[in-house]
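Quick one:
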Amino acid sequence: MTENKSPEVICIGQMVVDCITRNRQITSTRKNVYVADSISLHPGGDALNEARSLSRLGHKVRIVGVVGPDAAGQLLLSVLEKNKMLADGISVDPSLVTPVANLLVAENGERESINSPATKLGSWQPDPQVFSGSGAKILSLASLFRAPLDQPEPVIRLIRRAKEEGMLVCADTKLPTYRSIGLDDLEEILPLIDYIFPNENEAEFMTCQKDFRRMAEALHDRGIKNIIIKAGGQGCFVREENGSFYQVPALPVEAVDSTGAGDNFVAGFLSGLLQDKPISECCRIGTRNAAECVQRQGA
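Output:
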């Protein structure tokens, strides 16, 4: 029997290796020597986290990204193979260093991230031809405002091409780092975005609002159809295209590490969309998926 190579979701964004330091002690044991509960390497990056989770939930995913020809890149390629994701959209660029993110995770699961210029991914850009004849139902921009989705023209081309192919467009967002890009740069295609998933910090950055309803209304006023604001322990706040606004609470679990929680939420939400669930139920599936993630270390 020939394996079906048609994806349900095409996922574009960053692939990185996460170096996670858990509960680093503030005081040193010796001069310039510190201890932590653990230090470990994990495959990560928004696109890889999301695609792995969707694959685990039983969906066929094509991931589009780039790695360098180094040990970190080889680790990520082995994860793609192990998880049976469609990796024909992955490039290996000899000029690149595969990004490694340094994540400092506190005892309560909260984290800080440190990134290097490797996350700019050089000049590499995804080819819109990846959509041609794919039959995919959803384009997921897994790290909008971070490379390779941090330059307006390539993002605009990707979204327009996805709509030509009849796909839903979903966008998980990040705070910009090395390149400056915002909603103003994408104004012409914002009405083509069906679902957007900022966390509370990203939504505040984009809208200059602090109230969840006002954040959501400001994004809707830009033309974005459905807004889902991820708010950690508060769950998520939803503004549907029909104007309804409500909160879906988080599940009461003990958080070990919040790394990848938002990506797992989006994967669960997309799984619900693929099953034609209403938005509220998609949020509940996403919330359960995120709750599973935060009870373990790594994404």
